[in-house]
Amino acid sequence: MDNGCHCTADTDRLSNPILYNILSQMDNSKASQNNFNYNSVPHRCNCELRRTVCLKRPAEICKEASAVLVKTIHFMKNLPAFNQLPPNDQLSLLRSCWAPLFILGLVQEHVDFEVMDTPADSMLKKILLNRQESPEMEREQPTMAGVSKLKSCLKKFWSLDLSPKEYAYLKGTTIFNPDVPDLKAALFVEGLQQEAQHALSEVVQLIQPGPQERFARILLTASTLQSITPSLITELFFRPVIGQADLLELLVDMLFCR
């Protein structure tokens, strides 16, 4: 009986059969080269990165994360330009930007955290609680790969040591994203983003005169925010607090509650 690890092969085959078939035709040497882990840590498979994790100190970190989320929504609510947008546009922008904004909040508040392997329930407990068909079994669980990506993003921002004004204008460029689909005021949003980027550039120039190296680094680092999925943020920081509730619905209530 073959006891080898098939996690990577099985997952790739299910998620992308065309890619799996192509890779299956390659010889082992090329396959091993293409599967090189660019984190500079040798792995024979992705088991380590695919394992599900949870917070080590959930009570403390979830409390800090909740405070950051409240500040994030408060920041959006207090932007006059944001309040001038049609409600549907506000909702679309909220859906698009809440996770990147929250991550910027974690950076600004210097919220650091550690994770551990998710405790596995016994088969008896699953049967007694009928958890085979529970919604949480269907949700995407936080993995070590996702958490590593998030922590890498935080460290890159911390190395920039942004000022409060840089954070504010960077948040503005994140909120006012004209590429969000179906915006009624897309041109207005685009103008707001350009204004925020220009203001950010001026602040950076005051902090570090000369070539715009710092400005470019900030924008490049900000581009990594989109690689962190909202589901990772939700499951890692807020699922222990909100239970089965829909986080986006709660955010909408917070945003439109005057």
Automatic annotation (TrEMBL):
InterPro entries found in the cross-reference section: NHR-like_dom_sf (IPR035500), NR0B1/2 (IPR033544), Nucl_hrmn_rcpt_lig-bd (IPR000536), Nuclear_hrmn_rcpt (IPR001723)
Main location: cytoplasm
Entry's Gene Ontology BP terms: circadian rhythm; negative regulation of transcription by RNA polymerase II
Keyword entries, A-Z: Biological rhythms, Cytoplasm, DNA-binding, Metal-binding, Methylation, Nucleus, Receptor, Repressor, Transcription, Transcription regulation, Zinc, Zinc-finger
Pfam families: Hormone_recep (PF00104)
This protein's GO CC annotations: cytoplasm; nucleus
PROSITE patterns xrefs: NR_LBD
Transmembrane intervals: none
Ranges of residues in domain NR LBD: 10-258
Keyword rRNA processing included in the entry's annotation: no
Gene Ontology molecular functions: DNA binding; transcription corepressor activity; zinc ion binding
Localization annotation: Cytoplasm; Nucleus
Family classification: Belongs to the nuclear hormone receptor family. NR0 subfamily.
Functional summary from the UniProt entry: Transcriptional regulator that acts as a negative regulator of receptor-dependent signaling pathways. Specifically inhibits transactivation of the nuclear receptor with which it interacts. Inhibits transcriptional activity of NEUROD1 on E-box-containing promoter by interfering with the coactivation function of the p300/CBP-mediated transcription complex for NEUROD1. Essential component of the liver circadian clock which via its interaction with NR1D1 and RORG regulates NPAS2-mediated hepatic lipid metabolism. Regulates the circadian expression of cytochrome P450 (CYP) enzymes.
Name assigned to this protein: Nuclear receptor subfamily 0 group B member 2
Organism: Seriola lalandi dorsalis
